């Protein structure tokens, strides 16, 4: 649901309520250092006492587009952009250049955003040295108080921001234009979009921009959050030195707090669009601002609200298993703006079932609002939450982004930051106080009639089927009067995952790989099992398994069944368990196991905490040996597949994407031809289990990789009992190797869509590649160099794009292939010129290694810092061991001499590499232009 997803995507993570019962203050996390300088500037410092040698910094400005005057629309956002275009101590783009030399990636580690009532600047920096951190804080201080607003840089940035506006144009912008006026009706929000208006962006004068900065960027409207490995007291001294001297400019403009306008009616909007390819029904109700969590009573109200959301999700997930009247549905309550919350809900509908789908959804909504949740639903959730808290693994590393999000709430709302242990204890106490009747009252308060906007969007071609406003009002009225019974859902649950223990196998050979501290076991059924002890997450393990095969190892007549088997089998339960029974049986249990069949491999991913390791192994054995297909699940997934295939041809990008896929794809594979006719004919319920068993009956040649905190003797017992016990024998291993033939370069130009923008994709493809560790590093270095050079040219010099996407990837499975993709969106009339500038940059990189030495050195610093940060994590070892084993790399150099390998790659190597892989590659230029330019 495009509208609903767009709204939910920007809602606050922390859900709080607005009913107060009791007022005992919560205690602040004692590790947090906070203060306010004499000028009103606030700061929050949180220690990150882990091996992570980084500092994450955010500057909060309590001003956004709502503070703009009528002649400043879009200038709050423009000021944010100018922070990267020159300040007192860092002229022009020097701040980006300097930070990139320290390993900071523009976009990932260095960024900012502007909303209606806030502006936030973000830096994450390597802070092994105190000097790096002080320099970063100096940069932030310049952002706060000393931006230059160089006239030439302003003119350059106009084009970039207009291109940012252009990237948002199209269907999503038109849907937003239909939706937001209903929500923001008669409020300042309706006339203060952060992006602004094109007229003002093109024509404002420098003094107007500077006026906004001087008026609202003042110490008493700012806060700084720092999550750091450095001594917090030393950081506090830096902050006082750098931020304490700034003065609040007089006279001070009053910071007015704005809210959405309330109304008693329900507003409706039915909108059809030529480019829409889904049918979305949604409603959004305006709520008062949620109360900041400062007391135990606030905390309890917050828990009620998050419980309501969790139970709503569970209910609609369960309904989806039982009924296919609509594709998906939801209800939730969330915060959106500083002074308002929202109650939202809706459904994505099927063609031919629009009215009946809305009616069915509204009746389920009414059932929930009338009767609430059953005692069983609440008790299941309560026990699940308790067990999750009790079994949660202990992370050695603090998540700085989560902490910064919480500190942001402390600054903007005044809520209390609680210690994790104290918070968990409070949750456990409050969970037992929850009751169904109280939650029902909360639910009904959130979804009261009135003050609501209802939207229905659909493809223009379905206009005759789309209900009018009068019909929607009638459906709401009918659901309110409907004879509905309380929700009942009897689920029979077997007593145990496995009724009988399998006949165990054996570990028949052991080998220690000393270079990386990995143990390899050969199992009696022909599988291999690799173990790596690592305790970055205490009491937690993750297990993956893989084998070459996949779709291309199967008969082509079963291709469609293979594509859908994973989802159908995964949603149907296993053995004697339906999906609902398995979910209920594992309630609060951390064990999980997901199977997959991919184009060139099959495998699984599983994980568990210490107490649930046995359950994880049992679950793997159960799903492997006893797959099942639920008839309703099969019917629902097939229906969704047919609907997606039917709508695909109406997607404005479809013909363009198909032309690209045909140009760069293999000549003899048909992965992209899932037509309605083919799905209808080939997707058969009686073939799903046989197809799954063809890929998973035999465990022979499977490789398992276990990483985490475990006792090796205990694990061996589980491996022999469940993994070595998996069946062995023959399996179909031969793959149909795709043929990527060298062709003549191609140029694709197509016309579609109403938005005045060009979409450009450039591909460079070759099969002349040798996929190994040195090539992997060269690919990443080349990608990073291209990103920076193209950003500097196309964005900063030409002001022609908002961003440039670059990806350089390669593989040797199932055949050698390397592909480089460069993509961007721009003004249609400038597409060819900017494509030419891409070639200019490629030529310079190939001809002159000295041209990109700075970018290459910066890329090496960035890559090594990322490697250093990731090296100790379970996720790193799981992914990299899997790649090493799957691709059969002969050396462990990636793990033991990464920096040396990086250092050995020189600029001349990258220049020659680019010449071989780009200049001599098969090239595809694909441009999509607006429909109105077609001659």
Concise description?
With 935 residues, the chain is an alpha+beta fold. Helix content is 43%, strand content 19%. The longest helix has 27 residues, at 296-322.
Describe this structure in words.
- By secondary structure, this protein is an alpha+beta fold.
- The protein has four domains: 40-243, Cytochrome Bc1 Complex, Chain A, domain 1, CATH 3.30.830.10; 260-391 and 411-481, 2-Layer Sandwich (Cytochrome Bc1 Complex, Chain A, domain 1), CATH 3.30.830; 507-723, 2-Layer Sandwich (Cytochrome Bc1 Complex, Chain A, domain 1), CATH 3.30.830; 746-933, 2-Layer Sandwich (Cytochrome Bc1 Complex, Chain A, domain 1), CATH 3.30.830.10.
- It is 43% helix and 19% strand.
- Helix 19 packs parallel to helix 24 (712-723), helix 25 packs across helix 26 and helix 26 packs across helix 31.
- It starts with a helix and ends in a 6-residue tail after the last strand.
């Amino acid at each position: 649901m495009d509208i609903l997803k767009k709204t939910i995507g920007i809602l606050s993570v922390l859900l709080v309520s607005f009913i107060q019962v009791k007022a005992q203050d919560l205690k602040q996390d004692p590790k947090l250092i906070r203060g306010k300088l004499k000028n009103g500037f606030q700061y929050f410092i949180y220690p990150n006492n882990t091996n992570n040698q980084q500092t994450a910094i955010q500057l909060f400005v309590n001003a956004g587009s709502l503070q703009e005057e009528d002649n400043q629309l879009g200038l709050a956002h423009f000021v944010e952009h100018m922070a990267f275009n020159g300040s007192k101590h860092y002229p022009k783009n020097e701040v980006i250049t300097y930070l990139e030399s320290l390993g900071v990636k523009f976009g990932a580690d260095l960024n900012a955003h502007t909303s209606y009532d806030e502006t936030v600047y973000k830096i994450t920096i390597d802070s092994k040295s105190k000097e790096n951190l002080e320099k970063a804080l100096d940069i932030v201080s310049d952002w706060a108080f000393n931006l230059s607003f160089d006239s030439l840089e302003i003119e350059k940035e106009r084009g970039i921001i207009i291109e940012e506006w252009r990237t948002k144009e199209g269907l999503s912008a038109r849907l937003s234009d239909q939706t937001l006026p209903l929500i923001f009706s008669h409020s300042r929000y309706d006339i203060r979009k952060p992006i602004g208006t094109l007229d003002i962006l093109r024509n404002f004068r420098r003094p107007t921009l500077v006026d906004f900065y001087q008026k609202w960027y003042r110490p008493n409207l700012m806060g700084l959050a720092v999550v750091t490995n450095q001594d917090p007291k030393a950081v506090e001294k830096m902050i006082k030195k750098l931020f304490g001297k700034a003065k609040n400019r007089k006279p001070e403009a009053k910071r007015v707090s704005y809210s959405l306008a309330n109304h008693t009616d329900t507003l409706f909007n039915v909108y059809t669009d030529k480019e829409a390819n889904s049918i979305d029904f949604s409603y959004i109700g305006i709520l008062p601002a949620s109360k900041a969590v400062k007391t135990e009573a606030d905390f309890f109200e917050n828990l009620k609200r998050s419980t309501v959301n969790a139970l709503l999700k569970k209910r609609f997930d369960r309904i989806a298993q039982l009924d296919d009247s609509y594709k998906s549905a939801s209800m939730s309550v969330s915060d959106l703006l500083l002074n308002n919350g929202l109650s939202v809900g809706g459904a994505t509908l099927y063609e031919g079932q629009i009215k009946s789908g809305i009616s069915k959804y509204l009746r389920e909504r009414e059932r929930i609002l009338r009767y609430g949740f059953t005692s069983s639903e609440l008790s299941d959730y309560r026990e699940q939450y308790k067990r999750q808290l009790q079994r949660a693994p202990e992370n050695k590393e603090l998540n700085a982004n989560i902490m910064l999000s919480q500190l942001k709430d402390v600054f903007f709302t005044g809520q209390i930051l609680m210690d994790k242990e104290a918070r968990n204890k409070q949750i456990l106490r409050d969970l037992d106080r929850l009751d169904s009747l109280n939650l029902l009252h909360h639910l009904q308060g959130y979804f009261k009639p009135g003050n609501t906007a209802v939207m229905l969007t659909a493809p223009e071609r379905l206009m005759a089927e789309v209900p009018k406003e009068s019909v929607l009002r009638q459906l709401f009225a009918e659901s309110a009067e409907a004879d509905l019974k309380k929700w009942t859902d009897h689920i029979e649950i077997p007593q145990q995952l496995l009724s009988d223990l399998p006949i165990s196998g054996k570990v028949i050979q052991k080998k220690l790989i000393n270079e990386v501290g990995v143990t390899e076991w050969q199992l009696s059924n022909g599988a291999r099992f690799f173990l790596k002890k690592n305790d970055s997450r205490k009491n937690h393990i993750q297990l993956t398994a893989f084998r070459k095969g996949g779709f291309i190892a199967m008969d082509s007549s079963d291709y469609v069944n293979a594509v859908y088997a994973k989802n159908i089998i995964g949603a149907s339960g296993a053995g004697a368990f339906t999906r609902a029974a398995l979910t209920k049986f594992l309630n609060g249990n951390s064990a999980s196991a997901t199977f997959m069949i991919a184009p060139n491999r099959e495998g699984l991913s599983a994980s568990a905490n210490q107490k649930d390791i046995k359950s994880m192994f049992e679950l793997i054995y159960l799903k492997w040996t006893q797959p099942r297909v639920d008839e309703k699940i099969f019917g629902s997934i097939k229906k969704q597949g047919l609907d997606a295939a039917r709508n695909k041809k109406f997607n404005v990008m479809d013909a363009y994407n198909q032309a690209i896929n045909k140009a760069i794809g293999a000549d003899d594979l048909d992965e992209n031809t899932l037509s309605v006719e083919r799905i209808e004919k080939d997707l058969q319920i009686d073939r799903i289990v046989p197809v799954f068993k063809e890929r998973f009956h035999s465990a022979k040649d499977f490789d398992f990789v276990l990483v985490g905190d475990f006792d090796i003797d205990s694990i061996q017992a589980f491996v022999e009992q469940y993994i070595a016990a998996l069946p062995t024998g023959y399996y179909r291993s031969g793959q149909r190797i795709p043929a990527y033939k060298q062709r003549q370069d191609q140029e694709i130009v197509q016309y579609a869509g109403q938005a005045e923008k060009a979409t450009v994709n450039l591909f460079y493809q070759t099969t002349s590649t040798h996929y190994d560790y040195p090539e992997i590093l060269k690919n990443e270095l080349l990608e990073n160099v291209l990103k920076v050079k193209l950003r500097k040219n196309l964005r900063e010099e030409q002001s022609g794009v908002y961003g440039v996407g670059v990806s350089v990837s390669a593989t040797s499975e199932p055949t050698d292939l390397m592909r480089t993709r460069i993509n961007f969106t721009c003004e249609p009339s400038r597409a060819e010129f900017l494509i030419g500038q891409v070639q200019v940059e490629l030529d310079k990189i190939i001809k002159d290694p000295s041209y990109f030495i700075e970018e290459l050195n910066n890329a090496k610093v960035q890559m090594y810092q990322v490697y250093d940060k990731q090296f100790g994590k379970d996720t790193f070892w799981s992914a990299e061991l899997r790649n090493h084993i799957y691709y059969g790399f002969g050396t462990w150099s990636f793990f033991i001499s990464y920096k040396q390998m990086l250092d050995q790659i020189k600029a001349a190597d990258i220049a020659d590499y680019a010449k071989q892989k780009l200049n001599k590659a098969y090239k595809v230029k694909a441009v999509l232009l607006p429909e109105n330019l077609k001659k």
